[in-house]
Protein 1
Amino acid sequence: MREIVVDTREFEPPAPMQMVLSELQSMLPGESFVHQIHRMEPTMLFNRLKPMGIEFVVDKRGDEYHIYYFYPEDREKIREIIDVPGT
Amino acid sequence: MFQGLSLDQAPPFEAPLIFFAGALFFGLFGSFVLFFDDSLATLHLFTIGFLMLVMFGALQQMLPVVVGVRFEKPLRAALLAFFSIFFGVLLFFAAFWLDLSLLFVGVLFLLVGIGGFGMVTLLKLLKAPYSSPTVIAMRFSLIFLLLALLLGAHLGSSLGLMKASQSFSTLLPIHALFAGFGWIGLLIVGVSFQVIPMFYVTPELDEKKRGYLTYALAALVVLSAITPFIHHKAALISFITLLFGFLFFGLLTLRQLARRKRAIREPTILFWQIGLISLFAMPLLFFYDPRAFVIVGIFGFAMSIVFGMLYKIIPFLAWFHISSRGFFDMPTMKEMIDERVAYIQLFVHITATLALIVQPQIAAPLMILSFLLLGFNLLRPVRIYFNYKKRPSPFEMR
């Protein structure tokens, strides 16, 4: 699966949300997932995902948050790829 | 680790807007009243009428963001709390001018509005699926709010009965301690942990540091409330330590702001800096000028930060709600606010605060101007939001 990396660590709101939403438009089931690197949990963005039918997993590594966005049907594949404990 | 499908949807923009609009009304009303009166009654127009209403609006908005829970009927909850507090504050104020027995009714309204909203919010925070220093600080601040409310209700009722006993002078500073440092202070501390890294692209404070600071400040508020009944010197030491605790928070946050990754200048950062620097003056003012101590605490620290946050929260929410309906052609957050007006308001606000220490009648017109500038500047994002609300969503048109 293709990983679309979006590094939003140095952008102030609402740019991180805009950047991820824009990449989510091009995400396709079974083909790709979005990997956001951010300085905090983008909880306002999570609010927006429900109507879009997109799932996410958050992995905190040190000061950074790695958030993976994917379609529900890709859940198993994503678990294998990202290897985040607890997923 | 946080994972899941989604958090609940954010409450409608109208819910916090009701609180913000009411707050602006009380800010202006309080400023007018300063021409004639600067008693405790007027002070509550600013503390409950302005600060608390803004904080309730912000809390209602932040609950889904911070802990993933929300009010079941956010608009109804906002309206109920707002009107109870609105009439409560007006009656509380009117009682001092017309008839002290009105205090009973005012207190009753405040008990319903503040108590109801405070209890529900606290319960939601206690049941939150996960915790963080921000959540802990919010829980403490709401507990202190409820304690301040109960003490305030007792003080108000005893005044209404004309039975202000000796306990009145003992309980009044504890009420102020819970309200000022417990409720307003700890809430600002908790919210800063969340919004400073978010809005100003700074590193987060270390989680342990955030946790220790929250617990230490809460413990010092409790100690400062208990020790006056035990030993005078212990009470003084507790309170001074609390002031230095807040000063330390100011230092940490100023350093955090100085370390922001993009050194862009903008008015809201200055509002934060002025608010935090105000904390440095408080230990000295406590000994030399208690009146200035209260003014710098409320207007210098709390109000400066609240002004700064309103300039961020309102355009952000307007943008968020418009974009969630599928629009992408709206103005950016920066375009929604006139930064020059915000700088002018900041200057007027600082001057008004200093003038208030000297002479309330000089401060009154400046404060009116400050609130008018704030209202004028914040009206634009609100108008933009309502203009877009009238338009059919691109989602619906597909």
Protein 2
Amino acid sequence: MTDQDRQALSIPDFEEPSDALDDFAPRPKEGQGTKVEAKAIDAVSSFPSREAPPDGQLNLKGPRPILERFKAMCKADRRAYYDMLEILMDAYEGKR
Amino acid sequence: MPVIAFANSKGGSGKTTSALLLACALADTKPTTIIDADPRHPISTWAQMPGKPDRLDVVTNQSEKTILDEIEAAATKDPFVIIDLEGTASRLMSYAISQADLVIIPLKEQQQDALAALDVIQEIHRDMKATRRQIPYAVLFTQSRAAVKSRTARHIAAQFKENPKIDTFDVEIHERDAFAAIFSIGGSVSQLDPKKVNGLNKAHENVEGFRNEVIHKLRALTSKNEGRAVA
């Protein structure tokens, strides 16, 4: 008896199911927590921040009486120069 | 769930290309967000061309201070989040790594890329201490020759592949016209016209192989975390 004498199995051409990746889903919303993690990373990271600091600097040159007047205004209202500058700009633009 | 960060502190290592190939391949099946955290915004520029997959959202990172919120928002919206990082050792990279379920470290088989990759691996280990969790990572060789490799390339690759502590991808992203073409034509590799781009079939196979190995790694990690046998 040879293999040709034996009946061959009729094995169907199995179709592979397409992988729908249904085992992957969005993370549940946990909220908060990210600030704590940022601090934790800051404590150990050796990679520096590459971003420009949010604060800049402005040097003003002008007639001394005007500068003194501006400084006196700030002192009287106990305000930082930038703060008073914003108030004056807002007033100029009609926002106040 | 998976947040996948592409990180190498050296530019030109293949981060953007491999991140976009994976994002488009995943978006064929599931909603995917890619966060473009490279200040040159190459993926945001690509997204303005026609052909962006419908299920792919592109988020342009605003700053180091916003990256954690951007990742969280994307991860709670879509099953897959890909982060393309700048080729610089930056705090932004550290933040992104801290949120990743898998960090892919693309590198050309060159000494400079390899050294930068090792810097990133050290930073991942520092992030692990900070977050008190495992952050899995794997090295992906990019822009490699499909045929014969140089002796230097073999030398570099062997040191990673033979190191038991460093996971590497079996699949490599080869140097292919199709991978460059998507940035000048728009869309994904599967949408390119074989009459206009050479070797499209091979490129398609390459992307599929990469996608499948990423999925396999993610499933293996999930199984490991849940204490199940790896399939």
